[in-house]
Amino acid sequence: MWEVNFTDRRRHIIYSSKKKKKKKKKKAPEMAGRDRDWDFLLRTISNSARDSNFAADPAADPSLLHSVKKLYELCKAENSEDLVARIYPQINKLFQRAVASMSQSRTSYGLLLLAILQFYLDFGDVVLHDADPSLRTFFRSCLSREFADSVVAEATLDFLNANKKKLLVSFPTLLPQFFPLLLKLIAWNGEKLEKSFRQIFPALISPGSFLPMFLSLMDLPVLVVALEKVERTSGSLIGSSIASIQQSTAPKMLLDLMDEAYTGSTIGDGEADSESEDNNTIDVADPLFLDLLKDENDGLTERHWTSPGMTAALQAAINSPQSDRLKQVLNIAPRLLDVYFAIALREVNDSIICALIPQLMSRVATTFPDKTFSHKVQKRLLEFMLSSFQRSPNFVALLKKPIMDRLGEAYDSPAKTELALQLCWAMGEYAGGGPSQKDAARELFENLELLLYENLSSSRLGLRQESNIGETSRCSSQSRLLCFVVTAIAKLATVHRELLPRARVSLGKVARSRISDVRVWQRARDYLGLMTEPAISLSVLGPSQPSDENMQSPGIVDWSKGIRKMTAHVPFYILRDQEGPPFHDFSFSDILPAR
């Protein structure tokens, strides 16, 4: 009995082991095939990474990109640190060799390097590889040469969007440093990549890139003009670094480039007329040219838009036909400014926004000379400026010097006139920075007085000399500005009571002037009547937001405190149906509906 049981048990063990062996035999072909694929892929990368094959172009082999991607997928699927450690040395050698071969090759390396960079980002912690130098090498050595390749550009944006969170956390300075290069990418490839670019665009903004990026966005159409000229002069942008073109020893090419791009003349014209070339061309080392085509953020640099050469360039752009690429960028730039300003109001601190506003004021009248583009951009600039003042009214006091400078340029151009109007409104609406900003309010008030008196004198002169359409248009613009100035003076004096005597003198002169536009002197007369009653004046002319001293919003009566209120505290606009000069001999029964 014992022997039989032992034999049966032994038979059972032998039978079970045979079943297990049969199962292993079934897996063997699958594992063997996978190992063969693994070895083949790794051998492909290893052969391309060898120094002995340096003469060959690694990117010319289409199987190489396929091998890198398959090995990456295998590492992700297996989740094995041993496999990653085995692959990494060959992948790293391939990356170094590709970078070294790039300058001697016309083959695109962008897709291959992006596949390797993805391996670095996902498995860098396993093999202790810092991806930051590799990423910077990609931007400097590869993307700077291949940003004009639509396939590489699209793959780059997809790569950045897929790894955006990791890049922001691990390499927060990377994208802000290379934002000029990425702007060149979207400027050249246009609207087909706009959606992907707008997804990564917020990651380009940092405290160090915020101010320089504003200038780059404003000059995006000029960047397209410069890039197109580089392409026409030196050939395709794919595979050639613009930085090397800038540093080349061929100054004649650059002189011709800048002559045509900025003055509208052709290369043939320059050769035929050397005197014209001497007068109109911009130097090779022109800072505007170098700044437009740079790849990295090197801080806030002054762009010499007021130079004669730049003025001639903007004028020449009006007479030049617009390419499809330029037309697309003229639509893209205002939309990017919308995103930029939305991020600024939501995330950027007051000190940086305060530094941006003077730059914004200086560029309102200096935009690419396209009527539709200028209108869109100027509208966005003024809206952002007023939103900034609303968020931080003390900006009006802090920026009194640039504000006063812009008031002095009110008639230089229609755009500067509109800027002056908006600044006058902000000065009055926010009381020169608030009730506590006495000194700043006084200085702003004095500038408004000066602007008022200068315009009164010229208005009287214009009343006698008005004879043509241009003069009529100028007088209309002047009257509009005078209305804004008169309102700002009345509002400042309402909050800063020490300015009331001077305000009465100023408005009295306007009311007695009887200038050509009746709206101006009638408005001054109305404000004089309002200012005789402080409570009514505060309700009508006071700031829209309550201050610390007056926590109740102007124009709103707290009826629970009616027993302590005088009739004069009733908002003046309730009496709008009354005609003639303002009178204040009324009771509550005159304005409250009868039962």
UniProtKB/TrEMBL annotation:
Residue ranges occupied by any AP-5 complex subunit zeta-1 C-terminal TPR domain in the UniProt entry: 320-547
Residue spans crossing the bilayer: none
Database matches in Gene3D superfamilies: Leucine-rich Repeat Variant
SUPFAM superfamilies, A to Z: ARM repeat
Domain named AP-5 complex subunit zeta-1 ARM repeats: residues: 60-184
Name assigned to this protein: AP-5 complex subunit zeta-1 isoform X1
Originating organism: Punica granatum (Pomegranate)
Gene: LOC116192719
